[in-house]
Amino acid sequence: MRMGVRVRIVLTFLILSMMPFFLSGCLLVYLVKSGYNQLKILNDRVPIKKVLAEKNLPPKERHKLELALEARRFAVSHLHLHATKDYTTFVDLHRPYVSWIVTVAYKNQLKQHFFWYPIVGDLPYKGFFNPKDAKAEAKKFESEGYDVMVGGVTAYSTLGWFEDPILSTMLNEPDYDLVNTIIHESTHATIFIKSQAGFNERLAVFVGDLGTKLFYKYKEGPHSKTLQEIRRENADDIRFSKFISKEIARMKKWYKSHPHLRKGQRQAQFKKIKSDFTKMVKPKLQTATYAGFTHMKLNNAVLLYLGTYNYDLSDFAQLYKKLGDNFDRFIKTCKTFENSRNPTADLKKLISTGAPNAKPSAKSRPSHSS
Q: What pLDDT shows up at residue 136?
């Protein structure tokens, strides 16, 4: 996930709240409460065509909604992502975020705490529709000695289980980020591997970025100014991805070599990360996408969150190139990983062997289907 851009998460609250037989008391209460809020959003949906028929609709909102419909059509007709009724309706939330997520990590090692759910398996975050609930959850983990991060979410996916609406929180984004969001979330509805949040997000980030470039090339031509700006941001994404991936790898080794931490040692390492960014990365950036990094309060939860959304995407780029820059073949090949125990390793193996039809290591089919 890029700095300054919405967090994209997976919500299956409503489905899970209907499965009390599998859930503990606390988790059931959480899911029922979340399911109620999700149901409220679904009930407030209004067809976008009906909203566009309003004479007093602000021009900016009209433009964004028309762009959203155009991006959705492109995702289905040109990218051949899963055809659903997602993003054909609109909900005005009257708040800056649709939900807030809590991510948790251990203090003495660079390791995430995962939250388990039926259907989707382990996820590295827990979502709340009320910021007070998110802060309370974060405080609970902090009191138990964990690192935590709380962040606002402007968009999410229900993986095709429900007809996701365009949310008012999504309309504050630049045009190309709105397009990116729709393609990103459509990727989740097309391919989603249980308990593989990192792989799923990296794939959706890659497809979102690539699909957005293809959209604007189709819409505005190869010399589009929007396309040029997207390419500058993508170049910054790659620079930051390489930097944060290297820092995460370094910190994992550092924790192993420092089993007994003294006061201040961790903070010194976090300060070094910011210093290295300022010296080695910031001068090379072409956009302000990562300008806020030096102001972030770093801890293990923040680093791993950044790693989930910014980790090295070169494997996907290599696969795309190996398949002749053919988007359809790329998506079909990625879908072969849906039964994989380790899709990241299988992707690397596929690239190294050069066999685009190689079958990944099998396991029982995940209970989710897109």
A: 96
Residue 8 burial (C-beta neighbours within 10 Å; 0-12, 13-18, 19+): buried
pTM of the model: 0.79
- CA dist., res. 83 & res. 125, Å (int): 27
Bridging pattern class, strands 89-91 and 121-123: unpaired
- Look at the chain and count its residues: 370
How far, in Å, CA of 365 to CA of 326, rounded? 27
List, in sequence order, the alpha helices (H) in 161-224: 175-190, 197-220
CA dist 76 to 174, 210, 229, 343, Å? 22, 15, 24, 25
How far apart are alpha carbons 49 and 117 in whole angstroms?
A: 36
Nearest by Cα to 81 from 210, 233, 234, 196? 210
Read off the tokens for 203.
């794939």
Q: 72, 282, 101: which is closest to 186 by C-alpha?
A: 72
Q: Is the pLDDT of residue 245 over 80?
A: yes
Q: What pLDDT is recorded for position 268? A: 97
d(CA 24, CA 26): 6
Give dist(CA 335, CA 339) in Å, integer: 9
Residue of 234 and 350 predicted with greater confidence: 350
Please state the φ and ψ torsions of residue 232, each to the nearest 5 degrees: -65, -45
